[in-house]
Fold these 2 entries.
Entry 1:
Amino acid sequence: MNNDVVVIGAGPAGMAAAIQASSLGLKALVLDEQPAPGGQRFRAIEQRYRRLRAAGKGLPASEQKGLDLIRRFRESDTRFVDQASVWDISPGGRQISYLHHGRSFTIPANAVVAAPGAYERPVPLEGWHLPGVMSAGAAQTMLKMSGHPVKGRIVLLGCGPLLLLTARQLSNAGANVVGLLQTTGPADFLRATPYLPAALRSATLLKQGLQLLTQTPLVPKVFSLTQASIIGADHVEGVNYRSRGGSGFIECDAVLLHFGVIPNTQLSRLAGVAHDWNEQQECWQPVVDAWQETSAENLMVAGDGGGILGDEAAEMSGRLSILRIAHRLGRISDQSLSKLAAPLQRGLKRLAAARALIDTIFHTPETMLIPSGDTVVCRCEEVTAAEIAAANASGASGLRHLKVQTRVGMGPCRAQMCSMAAMAMITPGIRCGQRPPPPATVRAPIRPLTIGQLAEADVEI
Amino acid sequence: MRPPHDLPEPPHQVSFRFGDEEIEAWEGETVATALLASGVMITGVRAMSGRSRGPYCLIGVCHECLVEIDGLANQRACITTVRQNMKVCRQTRLRPLTGEDETREQ
């Protein structure tokens, strides 16, 4: 075995973990699906830097820290495999299989830091399967990678800091934003006021939030949005909406949806570790201790994949994971463990306190929580809300039941896009403390894999 | 420690085929972002319903952008980095069971 630790994901958490490992003399192998490190937060940042520099410009300050992190990561004594898609992790995490340039490799792992990150909460709306509908994060990714904003007339719809940030970035890039439809309204801010004092401890975060709320682009805006359906034959042609202030229709060519982000739990669920329902963030997440360690020894989950706290917290949790592993291996003393960990654990507490405010303001409205009628819930298998409701009415009470009866969640995305909505449909009291049923079991392969790739796999035991 | 990592030159442009079209992209960019930037919205058609689909999440989660790349089916366009002269095709129907079979009736 050549590695002390295998890190899955090269976003802020994974990179910070690798840098910390290297500084303590641990050998880390880092696997990431993307062609370059950065994760979604700092996607393609090296490339953007090169493009901007060639044009005589620089990166904005908020992005410069990402470039610095990537530089430290690249300069660290870490083995980095890009374009590596992990398709299996054994129970407890001691064996990892990944695809790399069409070939499968299975490797042993002494310790694992999984840093799978987050993805945008899928909220099925009528017509959301049409070409031209993307997540707001996708529009951001496109802008980062290609340098081009989404084409045509754009409507942004939903809630959350990223929605507002994307609106601003698209406008600055010269995109034609024709509507910003927010579910957020005065009631959300009122409900969130009790959480303000705790959030004051994270002044920078609060300042950034205020800037986002007040510096939105000059485009038509709707607040307190309660319902929306996307219209079009073969692609997006417009959005019908209803809000507390009335209803309307906007003609457009693209709709960008965003309803906050949720942890990507595919890997941690596949590894069979304990998960819990986070009521405040309305999502499942792995149960981790103060060292980011899951219920399986030496299997850590760091960053947003362990609960949404943002990139600053991700770096802290990535480093904490490695400190624990290094301590077990006898590379650091009890004393230096507590000395190095204390500021990180304090920082995580501070950032978690600010989170309640954000989560309460940007809340998916009750009216959009449960899809109905012809709305496609499972995009892969094209299962509608009506079909799921019918299966539920005839006795399908858990996600496995629903799956067997309707094929919901059986397509290539492995239920990542539909399971939250399907779960809400069979848990009507989800906002009143009713605990949702556990998500359906995740099974390998979690990425498209051919029989040939499986047969020719390179297995190291 | 490794030598300092520097990123001096600007990235190059590359081009690839999408069906009959020639698509320009930045080196290091993914197939999906290059297609979207060129105005391609539809990357596939569902065999059963005939519904058109396009990229949705661009981070490898939703699998909506599955395309055929250099003969290999079901590749996520949003995860695959462009290469000069790569051949990308829309997936519009069920695949034949063997190389010689005709495409199955839908």
Note: Chain A touches chain B through 54 residues (CB under 8 Å).
Entry 2:
Amino acid sequence: MARINQRHKPGFVPLTLFFILFLIFLYGPTATIAILSFQGPDGGLTFPMNGISLHWFRQLFEPQQVGDFGGSLLRSVMLGFAVMICTAAFSLLAGLAYRRKFKGSDALFYLSLVSLILPSILISLGIGIMFDRLGLAPTWYTSAFGAHLTWTLPFGLLIMFAVFNRFNRSYEAAAMDMGATAWQTFRFVVFPLVLPSLIGVSLFGFTLSYDEFARTLMTSGTFNTLPLEIYGMTTNVTTPVLYALGTVTTLFSFSLIFCAMFAVHLLKKHRAKTVN
Amino acid sequence: MRFFSQYISYFQAAPLALIILLFLLFPVLTILVVSFWDYDSYRLIPDFITENYEFLLTSPVTYSAYLKTLFYAIATLVITLLIGFTVAYYIAFYIRNSFVQSLLFIACTVPFLTSNIIRMISWIPLLGRNGLVNSALLETHIIDEPIEWLLYSDFSVILAFVHLYTLFVVVPVFNSMMRIDRNLVEAAIDSGASAMQTITHVILPLCKSGLAIGSIFVMTLVMGDFITVTMMSGGLSASVGVLIRNEISLLQYPAAAANAIVLLGTVLIMLSVMFRFINIKKEL
């Protein structure tokens, strides 16, 4: 009878402790550098804190200190945005395509999986050499853009697969029966239903591109994206300005995640209201 | 209209197919071709030679790099599977409130959407010679001298891998666990199975494909990695990815290409074994 009272299910206490330790393991290091980024002007890379200041955050915006922070941030945001749009659009389209059987669908599906799990250095090297052989200069908005899509699109595709597998086709059938055209059915029935998942796909598209390092390495050309810039800094910057940068980009990612979740929440609330 | 609706799937799948063709198939073919080319210090020379492979396969450096990489991959896999399974098991079977359940699940996945490089850097103030761990241990007189192997060692490399990739196990395993019919678990308990027996005889077999998907991600991510190994070993350790990266920076593209093709072959062999355990389409 013990199992009826779930609170006292055997193993609850040790497993809860284990889970809490896991969360500390996940977030602890990031929290540490967040604290250290508020070091006083004389503070170093490790504890103790030598006063508290915003000194290193100010340093971040002085160009001579950290290479090209502003420029690389701008490039990463624009690239992430473009990758996000294409990931959302292309994976939605592909998801729709896979609701029917078509020739080559299995091959394309397995190639997408390969794309997801192929070591990123292979993609980076391959695209780098291919552009070199074609006589094209690699840039962040061509070769790096393509390289990022090989990683974000399969993720988007898998999410859309999961969505359409659970999709109730009778809504569509009802719309069609009432005389809606194919476009109207998509626009007013299918699209609103998949929109929350599409926001999730977009979030993945943006953040995966924004943080991508290995695939950008050989494909970004002359100008660095933010992860490349940060990597460059790890070898030659020995002040907490590095931590300040880490804290700023992590906060940026967190706020994006929060916005996306909030948008999904609003959509669901809105839908619940209109249905009732 | 009839023509259009007949072929609409092809139009819808076209952008994906185009990206795969241009940025996956062509680049991999390019690597394959270039791996047979000759080169000198300035340029690539189109040719058909097998020296790149001969050099690679006879060099002891290659073998030690593969051994090192396999060591990292297996150690990381074992640890991430243990931690990932336990965490997923806790969220799936011990948390009854579905809101709390999704909250905890999201807490485990959020770090995936932040920068890996920053997450690696953030170990430095903890593990360094004057880092938090060493100071705490010195302060409490557990040790008399700072531990040197905390940072820039195999330990820190594996620690970083586990830190970065455990959620690749948590997500698919949690997904598998949520599909397990709870009656099966109850039936096992009712028939007198202990908690451990329920795990080994009921839950574990039903999570097989989730564990396989997680293993595929962890193995391929570790096998192809160069940045974690470079940063966390302080440049002291050479995995296969690091070798390729070094050849790239020396502009020895054909050598790097041959190395990449061998890596690709190794990864594909491992995958073909792991894919036997799963039907990926059923998992979505």
Note: Confidence is low (pLDDT under 50) at residues 1-6 of chain A.
